[in-house]
EfeO-type cupredoxin-like domain-containing protein (Candidatus Gottesmanbacteria bacterium CG1_02_37_22), 161 residues
Amino acid sequence: MKKLYIFLIIIALVGAGFVINLSQKSNNTDGSKQLPDTSNINNVNIGNNIDENSNTKKTDIASQNTDNSNQKQFNITGSNFKYNLSEIRVKKGDNVKIVFTNTEGSHDLVIDEFNVRTPQIKAGEKSTIDFIADKSGTFEYYCSIGNHRQMGMKGQLTVEE
């Protein structure tokens, strides 16, 4: 009988240790719940990351390299029935990143041939699309909302060999 009591005490101590260990993992020293670190998680909209930390360069034709690799980043601003960039140029094989910022109304940015599109976003919002420019030629990017494309909200992506 004495062995049974010792066995039950050992089980109780192991169980208490397990509960204390779990409690310490889920609580900070001040007793508050610790949330998972989300500093490296990007919001995703239709397969595209949202970037909140980019500057918009207002030029008519853009081709800019963001680092020493083959990634090219373009900051495109949309307003009522126009984009600030009418043409962007890249090389075939480049990793293209477009940060689309909307300043008025609701707009999106679509490139059919590369099967990429931002979600429709409202003024003050941003969305990012990434893709590999694996086809050469000239392709139209446009806003797919209503008749915005017909009203001039479009540009050209030129992919050179």
